[in-house]
Amino acid sequence: MPQLKLSVDLAELRQPFKQALHTAAQLGVQAVQIEARGELDPAELTQTGIRHIRKMLEDWNLRVSAVRFRPALAYYNPERLEARIEATQRAMELAYKLGAGLVVGRIGRIPAPESPEYRLLSEVVTDLGRYGQRVGAMLATETGTEPGPELARFIQQLPEGSLGVDFNPANLVVEGHCLEEAVETLGQYVLCVQATDALRDVAAGTAVRVELGRGSVDYPSVLAGLDGWGYQGYWTLQPAGGGDPQAELARSARFLRTL
Fold first, then answer.
1. What is the mean pLDDT of the chain?
2. Nearest residue to 189 via CA among 207, 173, 204, 167
3. How far is residue 248's CA from residue 76's CA, in Å, rounded to a whole number?
4. How far apart are CA 154 and CA 158, in angstroms?
């Protein structure tokens, strides 16, 4: 198995962009995941601004692993849907311009297949997939809101290349879904992994996010399962919260490197 490619979710550092890049470089990761808002809002960024960002990334020898865009409402909710679609398209354009070619976020809980919401979601995601193919970026939805097989069935009925998967193990554990089943059914669609962990209390039937390596996620098994599908993308570090995020990310990077 080749050495893992590590990325850091910059938004979780809670630092200004330039300072966060410095922190990521100190952690020794190869890439960063950025959020399409605030300083990096695609609607506000000029071409000069994008060139400046690319220069800063080059100075720190970093790449962009993905652009995160999380709309407030699902893509089957008609309220301000067009504005949501346009914002997603701008995030795709930004991802391409920064060399990532990937937008990660959430499309919403998969509705019942016979419902109007399911048809609308399929249409919107198909259109976004076509747009992404034109501009050179793809949309990946985060796991957790439904079991792996259910999300896989939705992806399979879309035109090929419309939607990928942003694999988040902690989300699956917290929601009580089978992690092994998710790897098996979604592995071929995984474009990004959020390196997260959660601890499940079987007796209480609950789970909480914890620091990477201290939870219920069997990472050697997850790595082996995704490696079997040929996954060679980034593993994006995210702190569980509650402490010093930089120190936690350093420990998480060491944990993954030991694997």
1. 95
2. 167
3. 37
4. 7
* Cα–Cα distance for residue pair 225/184, rounded to 1 Å: 7
pLDDT tens digits for 137-184? Answer: 999 999 999 999 999 999 999 999 999 999 999 999 999 999 999 999
Q: Is 226 helix (H, G, I), strand (E, B) or coil?
A: helix
CA-derived radius of gyration, the chain = 18
Average confidence (pLDDT) over 23-52: 95
Strands (E), the chain: 5-9, 31-35, 63-68, 102-105, 138-142, 164-167, 190-195, 197-201, 206-210, 234-237
Q: What is the DSSP letter of 231?
A: -
CA dihedral 33, 65, 24, 194 (to 10 degrees): 60
Tokens of 208: 């909480």
**Alpha-carbon distance 100 to 190, whole Å?**
15
d(CA 171, CA 176): 9
- Length in residues, the chain: 259
Report how far residue 44's alpha carbon sits from residue 33's, in angstroms, rounded to the nearest whole number: 19
CA 129 to chain centre: 16
Amino acid at 199: L
User: Which 8-state DSSP code applies to residue 189?
Assistant: G
Handedness of CA 147, 34, 63, 17 (dihedral sign): negative
Q: Are 29 and 65 spatial neighbours (Cβ–Cβ below 8 Å)?
A: no
Q: SS3 for 90-105, per residue?
A: HHHHHHHHCCCCEEEE
Q: Is 57 helix (H, G, I), strand (E, B) or coil?
A: helix
